[in-house]
Amino acid sequence: MTTGTQAQTVTVRVPGKINLGLSVGPLREDGYHELSTIYHAVSLYDTVTVQPADDWSVHVTGPWGEHVPTDDSNLALVAARTLAKRRARRAKVDPVRIDIDKHIPVAGGMAGGSADAAATLVGCREVWGLDHLENDLLEMLGASLGSDIPFLLHGGTAMGSGRGEQVTSVLARGELHWVLWAGEGLSLSTPQVYAECDRLRAEGGVTPGAPEPSGALMTALRRMDTDEVAAALHNDLQEAAISLEPVLAEALSAGLDLGARAGIVSGSGPTVAFLVGSQTEAIDLSVGLAANGPTGDIERAVGPAPGAQIVHQRSNPEPPRSRPDTDRPGPLGPVIG
Ligand SMILES: C[C@](O)(CO)[C@H](O)COP(=O)(O)OP(=O)(O)OC[C@H]1O[C@@H](n2ccc(N)nc2=O)[C@H](O)[C@@H]1O
Ligand SMILES: Nc1ncnc2c1ncn2[C@@H]1O[C@H](COP(=O)(O)OP(=O)(O)OP(=O)(O)O)[C@@H](O)[C@H]1O
């Protein structure tokens, strides 16, 4: 960490996530569903650069850049402004320019917007010299912006409960190899997929109980046996995602026919994650899917990956503006409230 007394340009790398298990409980009064999930961060990263600027702005490049809004609705900008507003109780903070190199599929169920928000919180903490702002406070702030954000700060493989914002590490040794298929032109809205899940349950006369973590999945992860993990993958939102985008069923069976150990819709979809046994199997499956699967972008990834972390920082050439002592970063106090 730096002292925070000099303006800096900070670059943060943040992974996308898949859900190895996603058990969805009943709809709560606040409009969220109670969840029990096993999050797994994978090595498909967005890179977010934050630097002080005269005005707030966000700029997006990369393979998925054109699908991302650059107005005030961008989740990275929302995160930066929210942290600034909380911070403004104590002192003024400068606006920032945010640059996102976008590789995580947009509206794909891999929490790309949440990832950028998490990366921005980490970047702004450094740029604004908020060294005393502990990770758990950052996670609390992230949770107020989106249920997946605390996990993108945390990374690795972890259990999510509540509406997904309460995160605890899970014991998982070794690596899992994945092939990710993002169908061309496909996107799904998260609230719509949850609503479709409720509709299908009501139609089938199913009343969900309290969501529970899967013992079989936890055991498989502890042993890190690929076939055991493959057998234990489960997503309660998969049927709803397929109901809204039937091509997902085609993609899933194409991957299985081509040798994947298992396939699962990632979160609310529509990205499909295929589990394979090695890098070689991943290459074979990618080539097979590109030739014989439904049209889409195909990426290989490994998990677990670390959460949002600084990968580069540079002091800006100009000396920092002098500020009165009262303007210096002080203890933030209760950030959430
Ligand atoms: C599908 C998952 O990615 C699985 O990890 C998450 O549950 C979605 O998390 P997220 O995109 O961060 O979602 P949020 O931004 O918190 O919520 C967006 C909307 O999704 C629905 N939502 C989200 C989380 C949850 N536990 N229950 C819900 O019903 C609600 O309609 C909510 O208004
Ligand atoms: N930085 C951002 N990156 C991606 N999308 C963003 C961003 N900021 C705002 N959005 C908007 O948020 C919507 C959802 O995008 P996102 O990629 O986070 O979906 P998702 O991966 O399905 O989310 P989740 O898995 O958390 O449910 C997009 O349609 C887009 O308009």
UniProtKB/TrEMBL annotation:
<protein>
    <recommendedName>
        <fullName>4-diphosphocytidyl-2-C-methyl-D-erythritol kinase</fullName>
        <ecNumber>2.7.1.148</ecNumber>
    </recommendedName>
</protein>
<dbReference type="InterPro" id="IPR006204">
    <property type="entry name" value="GHMP_kinase_N_dom"/>
</dbReference>
<dbReference type="GO" id="GO:0016114">
    <property type="term" value="P:terpenoid biosynthetic process"/>
</dbReference>
<feature type="active site">
    <location>
        <position position="17"/>
    </location>
</feature>
<dbReference type="InterPro" id="IPR014721">
    <property type="entry name" value="Ribsml_uS5_D2-typ_fold_subgr"/>
</dbReference>
<feature type="binding site">
    <location>
        <begin position="105"/>
        <end position="115"/>
    </location>
    <ligand>
        <name>ATP</name>
    </ligand>
</feature>
<comment type="similarity">
    <text>Belongs to the GHMP kinase family. IspE subfamily.</text>
</comment>
<dbReference type="GO" id="GO:0019288">
    <property type="term" value="P:isopentenyl diphosphate biosynthetic process, methylerythritol 4-phosphate pathway"/>
</dbReference>
<keyword id="KW-0418">Kinase</keyword>
<dbReference type="InterPro" id="IPR013750">
    <property type="entry name" value="GHMP_kinase_C_dom"/>
</dbReference>
<dbReference type="InterPro" id="IPR004424">
    <property type="entry name" value="IspE"/>
</dbReference>
<comment type="function">
    <text>Catalyzes the phosphorylation of the position 2 hydroxy group of 4-diphosphocytidyl-2C-methyl-D-erythritol.</text>
</comment>
<dbReference type="InterPro" id="IPR036554">
    <property type="entry name" value="GHMP_kinase_C_sf"/>
</dbReference>
<dbReference type="InterPro" id="IPR020568">
    <property type="entry name" value="Ribosomal_Su5_D2-typ_SF"/>
</dbReference>
<feature type="active site">
    <location>
        <position position="148"/>
    </location>
</feature>
<feature type="region of interest" description="Disordered">
    <location>
        <begin position="297"/>
        <end position="337"/>
    </location>
</feature>
<dbReference type="Pfam" id="PF00288">
    <property type="entry name" value="GHMP_kinases_N"/>
</dbReference>
<keyword id="KW-0547">Nucleotide-binding</keyword>
<keyword id="KW-0067">ATP-binding</keyword>
<dbReference type="Pfam" id="PF08544">
    <property type="entry name" value="GHMP_kinases_C"/>
</dbReference>
<keyword id="KW-0808">Transferase</keyword>
<comment type="pathway">
    <text>Isoprenoid biosynthesis; isopentenyl diphosphate biosynthesis via DXP pathway; isopentenyl diphosphate from 1-deoxy-D-xylulose 5-phosphate: step 3/6.</text>
</comment>
<feature type="domain" description="GHMP kinase N-terminal">
    <location>
        <begin position="74"/>
        <end position="156"/>
    </location>
</feature>
<dbReference type="GO" id="GO:0050515">
    <property type="term" value="F:4-(cytidine 5'-diphospho)-2-C-methyl-D-erythritol kinase activity"/>
</dbReference>
<feature type="domain" description="GHMP kinase C-terminal">
    <location>
        <begin position="218"/>
        <end position="289"/>
    </location>
</feature>
<keyword id="KW-0414">Isoprene biosynthesis</keyword>
<dbReference type="GO" id="GO:0005524">
    <property type="term" value="F:ATP binding"/>
</dbReference>
